[in-house]
Amino acid sequence: MQKSVTTSVRLPRDLKRKVERKAASAGCGRNRVIIKALESYLREDEQAAYETDARHQSQLAAKLDSPDTDWDKMVERDFPGQ
Fold this sequence. Notes:
Layout: H1 13-26, H2 30-64, H3 69-78
Helix pairs in contact: 1-2
């Protein structure tokens, strides 16, 4: 288990109440609720960065691919105007 450090934050009263209600319903402490919330938030941020990078890599790869004219002709024939 990682060594923990103590920090202090100011929370709006309504958010503090929500954290307390969540902790009570989950049967854990407020600290655990806040840690889980932060982990989830940061994971979403990391996922967004990963998706942005993947999109960028895909766009770069598409530029390197030579056009497939036979495929393009077939698509145009089967799906005109798309």
